[in-house]
Design goal:
single chain, mainly alpha, 32 helices, 76% helix, flat
């Protein structure tokens, strides 16, 4: 019998055993580590007993959530904020309870202690604590200035006193920060405070925008001096931000004054201010290589020169003057200036050109869309001149051409590997095209001259597109082609005012684009030119029909000449890249002819039949076999339209013209491919006649149609059984059964009316009994019939 120890004693034994096991485990691990180190060459073996019992490592201490310096900074900041709040509360709330001497003594003592404490703290290397205490001292100096104003100079204006006190505080804080160089707060605070004196002084003196701009400019110069003389990162960052803010404010204010100036004399002083700011910005861009100050300098110089010179020219030419000044900045490219400065001035020039381009951009769409207003009333006579209402329209082409010239120079001067070389060429071509579209409206050309101008513009752009595409296909060629299409569009819209001009322009454009489509090695120009040629030929056909006074159906026959000619031309072109474009556009022209002929059924039938002839002729080519499916469809539609126009209502007259060609095609298909299904070969043709005739026979009270339909269905059924064709047997049998049911229906109804009412249920019951008794045999018969039908094709 075993004696178990008490639970408390047993628990103590278990704990002791576990402790020994842990100690042994750590000892073995230490031995293992020593043996691994001993096996590595070049590792010195430490003497002693590495296998001695190693105490277990202490439990890892909980990881602090915040690093000590961060926690210290947070605590110091909170302490400084609390002390500052307390000082403010004391100054505002408790100030009235003390006399003048007491007030001065308290604030002076507290400020002196707060400013002197960092000296001792820095000696103990407590930099963060010193910064916090120094921050309190700086805040107390602001309170001292406020208290001084309330006690010593209450009659002085608040803004003027703030200007003087901010200047004094900036100097004091700068000296204090320079004396205690290890402190990080006083010098940046001095730079921030130094932004205020001149601006506050201008506000206190009631100075105008010009003096305010000067004050901001001087402040920016002071920030630039700090950037030159100081080495601290924080101080330089604050001074840089101040220079950007005050400099931008000075330039914007002076620029606004230059814009609103009424005379050249009034614009001189703001111009001088802008040039001074530009000089400072250029110096900053040179001394501290950066493109941003150079951009500001370039824009300021342009505003200064253009602001004075614009009073010597007409208002419409002011944008051109600004553009010329902006382009003049590009002269820096030929100098040996620093790269950031060159980039900045180029960026300023590009900004000016972009702004002028945006100003001129709406003129081109207006010049293009204005002639369209007359397109709603074509051939009503040409007005005296092409008029477009838009401010600055006469100088818009000049601006666009100047920018295009700059882009052209950039394209030619750039190396072949430059990424933006092609983009520059595209931009130049597009701007030249836009300027060309605006010229007739800008010069108020007479309508005949405007039409001739647009024709010449289209010819030149198309020639440029062909030449560029032949040399190097890409963006420039596509841009020139787009300009040609735009010029042709606006030229056509302009010519619609006169009948002779319309016919001449449409014919000329059809010839031009057709010629461009035949140029070898013209790349992507050929398909687009081919489409345009067919479109303008179609337009010419429509205009010719209208000129001869033809009705729309007569014009449809004239339009159909275009698809016929295109089909002949495409057969000659064969694999030419423009062949597909010609055929697709010609198909659209054929659809237009159908739409035009809808009002006259006989003409529509003729148009459809001629379209079928064109489709059949196209399908003769091996690569266009698929077009052959459209030919019978067009022929059938033509026959239906002709029959409907003649008042024919017999459905067989509509279905037989479709059935006979369909059966002929099916017979040809089966002769070439005996394994083809009868449903594919004969099903559509038979269904096209049998089913409509069956529907008509069910509603026909006469005997001739059902008799003929039954005879035809019987012939189809027997032919299907003889030739073992599933489609013929099924369709013929179903139609024959339904036709016979239609003929027997009156007699069945008559017999059912004579029979007693109980007889039909009895007959149905007997039939069900018979089927049920012979169910297995009927099921085998059904399966046999299904297999026989499945073996048919």
């Amino acid at each position: 019998m075993e004696n178990l120890p008490p639970p408390a004693q047993e628990l103590a034994l278990l704990d002791r055993e576990l402790t020994q096991l842990d100690a042994r485990r750590y000892q073995l691990l230490a031995r293992r580590a020593w043996l691994l180190a001993a096996l590595q060459p070049g590792v010195a073996q430490s003497p002693g007993r590495p296998w001695a019992t190693t105490p277990p490592p202490p439990e890892s201490a909980p990881r602090s959530e915040t690093a000590p310096p961060s926690a210290q900074n947070v605590l110091l900041t909170l302490g400084g904020v609390l002390l500052t709040i307390a000082a403010i509360a004391f100054t505002v709330v408790s100030w009235g309870h003390l006399g003048i001497g007491g007030r001065a003594a308290v604030l002076g003592a507290v400020t002196a202690v707060a400013l002197a404490a960092p000296v001792a703290l820095l000696r103990r290397a407590l930099v963060s604590t010193g910064d916090s205490v120094a921050g309190i001292g700086l805040a107390l100096t602001v309170l001292d200035a406020y208290a001084l104003h309330q006690v010593a100079a209450p009659d002085t204006g608040g803004v003027a006193f703030a200007a003087g006190s901010s200047a004094v505080l900036a100097l004091l804080w700068a000296g204090y920060g320079a004396a205690l160089g290890r402190l990080r707060l006083p010098l940046p605070a001095a730079v921030v405070t130094a932004q205020l004196p001149l601006l506050l002084w201008a506000a206190a003196a009631g100075a105008g925008p010009l003096f305010t701009s000067g004050a901001l400019l001087v402040t920016a110069a002071g920030d630039l001096a700090v950037l030159l003389w100081q080495k601290g990162v924080v101080v330089r960052t604050v001074a840089c931000a101040g220079a950007y803010v005050t400099g931008a404010g000075a330039l914007l204010t002076a620029g606004r004054l230059s814009v609103v100036a009424d005379t050249a004399g009034a614009a001189v002083v703001p111009g001088v201010m802008l040039l001074t700011g530009a000089a400072l910005a250029l110096f900053a861009a040179w001394r501290f290589p950066s493109a941003v100050p150079a951009v500001a300098a370039g824009l300021a110089a342009v505003a200064a020169v253009a602001g004075v010179a614009r009073h010597a020219v007409a208002d419409d030419w002011s944008p051109i003057l600004v553009l010329v000044c902006g382009i003049a900045l590009l002269a820096v490219v030929r100098t040996r200036a620093a790269r950031p400065l060159v980039r900045g001035l180029i960026g300023a020039s590009c900004g000016v050109q972009a702004a002028v381009a945006v100003w001129a951009a709406p003129a081109a769409p207006l010049a293009v869309l204005t002639p369209l207003a007359r397109a709603q009333r074509p051939w009503t006579g040409m007005p005296d001149a092409l008029q477009v209402s838009w401010p600055g329209l006469p100088t818009t082409p000049v601006a666009l051409l100047l920018i295009a010239a700059v882009l052209t120079v950039a394209h030619r001067s750039a190396g072949a590997a430059t990424r933006w070389r092609a983009e520059a060429a595209c931009g130049a071509i597009a701007l030249v095209g836009a300027a060309g579209c605006v010229v007739p409206a800008a010069a108020s050309l007479p309508y005949p001259a405007a039409v001739a101008w647009y024709a010449a513009l289209t010819t030149g752009a198309l020639a440029a597109a062909v030449r560029l595409s032949t040399a190097a296909p890409g963006g420039p060629a596509a841009t020139a082609l787009g300009c040609a299409v735009a010029g042709a569009f606006v030229g056509t819209a302009t010519a619609l005012a006169s009948e002779p001009a319309t016919l001449a322009v449409l014919g000329l454009l059809a010839v031009l684009f057709g010629a461009a489509a035949t140029v070898p090695d013209a790349g992507p120009v050929r398909p687009v030119a081919a489409c345009a040629a067919v479109l303008y030929a179609t337009g010419l056909a429509c205009a010719t029909g209208a000129s001869f006074g033809l009705p729309l159906p007569g014009t449809a026959l004239l339009v159909l000449v275009v698809p016929a000619t295109a089909a002949v031309l495409a057969a000659h072109l064969r694999r030419h890249p423009a062949a597909a474009s010609v055929e697709i556009t010609a198909a659209a022209a054929g659809l237009l002819s159908v739409v035009l002929a809808i009002g006259d059924a006989p003409v529509l039938s003729l148009v459809l039949a001629l379209g079928g002839v064109i489709a059949a002729g196209t399908a003769v080519r091996p690569e266009r076999r698929a077009v052959g499916y459209a030919a019978p469809a067009l022929f059938v539609l033509a026959a239906w339209v002709r029959l409907a126009a003649s008042g024919v209502s017999v459905p067989e007259a509509y279905t037989l013209p479709a059935t006979i060609p369909a059966l002929a095609v099916g017979l040809l298909r089966r002769s070439r491919d005996p394994r083809a299904s009868s449903w594919t070969a004969y099903g559509p043709g038979l269904a096209a006649t049998l089913l409509p005739s069956l529907l008509a026979a069910w509603g026909d009270p006469h005997w001739l149609r059902p008799l003929l339909l039954g005879a035809a269905a019987l012939a189809v059924t027997l032919t299907g059984a003889r030739l073992r064709l599933q489609a013929l047997l099924a369709l013929g049998g179903v139609v024959l059964a339904l036709d016979a049911l239609h003929e027997l229906a009156p007699y069945i109804v008559q017999v059912v009316g004579v029979l007693p009412r109980w007889l039909p249920p009895a007959v149905a019951g007997l039939l069900l009994l018979a089927v049920g008794a012979t169910y297995e045999q009927r099921l085998r018969d059904a399966r046999r019939l299904r297999h026989r039908l499945a073996r048919m094709r």
